[in-house]
């Protein structure tokens, strides 16, 4: 069968990891602007990497430095996007997934009028993308909520944030209704319990019951997503709204039924945020989990009606690795993954950051998601962080990256041949950027090398890697030539 003729090949970025310009043209502080580079913390210890306290936030607000706050500088995409979009066009991109920074439009989240400079910036970017034939796929919340809302309301724990987010989204829909067809509400919405501050603006050390706050934040995001889906369909006829899940594919460590059960439980909790957005209701097993854990979610009858009436049109997900589970963690060798710690599969290699490399797991994930949801799918993040070397003749020979993508594309195509309806694929990331979890530049994902180190030193000059030309050919042949 092969991929559909209009398959959306491209790449994915996030505003907070590329734009920089953190205090330019009226932008307010976001939760990403207080994330620090921690060179003395093990890159595999993601909990310490993403951890933040109220004191850390207060210190960051007073600090105008960008050296140890790398998401404030990014890769200067804010000023260099025309050049970078031209490079994406040269590769043949059909689509680019990107996010709109909430704090460029509403600096604190509570303004009544949007910041026109922020609206104009994205308008110019979308114009350039359409000039180059690149379809925007826009994420409305990608780990960059206003810091003011985190400090004032403890982020998404507070119901007031729903209306503020809906207002922001409606402004985006009305402003870009002729520019954007594909919208995603929350990036990796399942991540609230893994990094509550980054994902939901919850400050752990000013929270009495963290687990309660996290699941209340989930609920408020679900309601907001449903309201935003409704608004988008009303403002932009023919628009498509999707949810976005971190696909944390988990296998039993053995055939011991207890290991199978442990893995089932992990996968069930991973699926549940997408279940709510696709089916419009909470799964019974999750509701029972709340009851057993004495988690009381403030949800109204109106909330449940809104969820049921405004489900998403398609399902997107990130996939980087797989893990294994056991009823007894003493049976496991633990390793890290995409902001998670779990059992290491002895049959799979790992990257320098401890992430397992499992191409077949991508095929399994596609089959599982399509079988569960019966909705069109899109892979909106997949890639491998690695240390790249710029040679004396200004080349980057990254055969390891080509090998990674080739293996994953082969499995992706097999899933499509098995019947999966796949709309597109956007790699994470097409250009080197600041890592979400470790705030490093040296953890490089791109087909394009950016001359910048972990402390912000460098010319910011862009260089094509060997994988650039390889991916260009993959797109040209719609995946039929992977050599």
UniProtKB/TrEMBL annotation:
Give an example GO cellular component term for this record. cytosol
- EC primary class: hydrolase
Q: Give any single GO term for biological process.
A: carbohydrate catabolic process
| Top-level taxon in the UniProt lineage | Bacteria
Keywords for the protein's UniProt record, in alphabetical order: Glycosidase, Hydrolase
* One GO MF term: 6-phospho-beta-glucosidase activity
**Pfam families recorded for this chain?**
Glyco_hydro_1
EC numbers: 3.2.1.21, 3.2.1.86
InterPro entries named among the record's database cross-references:
GH, GH_1_N_CS, Glyco_hydro_1
Is Hydrolase found in the keyword set? yes
Q: Which SUPFAM superfamilies match?
A: (Trans)glycosidases
Family assignment from sequence similarity? Belongs to the glycosyl hydrolase 1 family.
What's the protein called, per UniProt?
Answer: 6-phospho-beta-glucosidase
Q: Taxonomic classification, please?
A: Bacteria, Bacillati, Bacillota, Bacilli, Lactobacillales
Encoding gene (name): pbg7
């Amino acid at each position: 069968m092969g991929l559909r003729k209009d398959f959306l090949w491209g790449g994915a970025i996030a505003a907070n990891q590329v734009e920089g310009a953190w205090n330019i043209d009226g932008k307010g502080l976001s939760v990403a602007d207080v994330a620090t580079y921690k060179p003395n913390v093990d890159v595999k210890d993601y909990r310490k990497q993403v951890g933040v306290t109220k004191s850390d936030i207060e210190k960051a607000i007073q600090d105008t430095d960008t050296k140890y706050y790398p998401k404030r500088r990014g890769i200067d995409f804010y000023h260099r996007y025309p050049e970078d979009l031209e490079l994406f066009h040269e590769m043949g991109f059909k689509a680019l997934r990107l996010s709109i920074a909430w704090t460029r439009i509403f600096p604190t989240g509570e303004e009544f009028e949007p910041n026109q400079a922020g609206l104009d910036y994205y308008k110019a970017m979308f114009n350039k993308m359409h000039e180059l034939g690149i379809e925007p796929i826009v994420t409305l919340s990608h780990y960059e909520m206003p810091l003011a809302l985190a400090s004032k309301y403890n982020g998404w724990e507070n119901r007031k944030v729903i209306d503020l987010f809906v207002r922001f989204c409606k402004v985006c829909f009305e402003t870009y209704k002729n520019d954007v067809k594909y919208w995603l509400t929350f990036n990796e919405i399942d991540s609230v319990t893994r990094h509550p501050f980054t994902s939901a603006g919850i400050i752990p050390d000013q929270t009495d019951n963290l687990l309660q706050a996290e699941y209340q934040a989930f609920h408020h995001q679900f309601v907001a997503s449903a309201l935003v889906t409704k608004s988008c369909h009303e403002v932009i006829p023919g628009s498509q709204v999707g949810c976005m899940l971190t696909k944390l594919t988990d296998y039993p460590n053995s055939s011991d039924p207890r290991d199978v059960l442990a893995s089932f439980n992990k996968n069930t909790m991973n699926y549940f945020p997408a279940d709510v957005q696709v089916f419009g209701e909470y799964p019974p097993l999750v509701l029972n989990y709340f009851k057993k854990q004495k988690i009381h979610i403030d949800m109204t009858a109106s909330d449940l009606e809104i969820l049921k009436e405004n489900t998403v049109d398609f399902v997107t997900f990130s996939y980087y690795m797989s893990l294994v589970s056991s009823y007894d963690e003493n049976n496991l060798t633990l390793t890290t993954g995409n902001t998670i710690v779990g059992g290491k599969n002895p049959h799979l290699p790992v990257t320098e950051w401890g992430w397992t490399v499992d191409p077949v797991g991508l095929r399994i994930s596609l089959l599982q998601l399509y079988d569960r949801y019966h909705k069109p799918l899109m892979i909106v993040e997949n890639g491998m962080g690695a240390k790249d070397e710029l040679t004396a003749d200004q080349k980057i020979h990254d055969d390891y990256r080509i090998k990674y993508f080739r293996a994953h594309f082969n499995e992706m195509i097999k899933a499509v041949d098995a019947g999966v309806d796949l709309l597109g694929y956007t790699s994470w990331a097409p250009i080197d950027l600041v890592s979400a979890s470790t705030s490093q530049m040296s953890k490089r994902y791109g087909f394009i090398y950016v001359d910048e180190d972990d402390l912000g030193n460098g010319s910011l000059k862009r260089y094509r890697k060997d994988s650039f030309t390889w991916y260009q050919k993959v797109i040209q042949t719609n995946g039929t030539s992977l050599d």
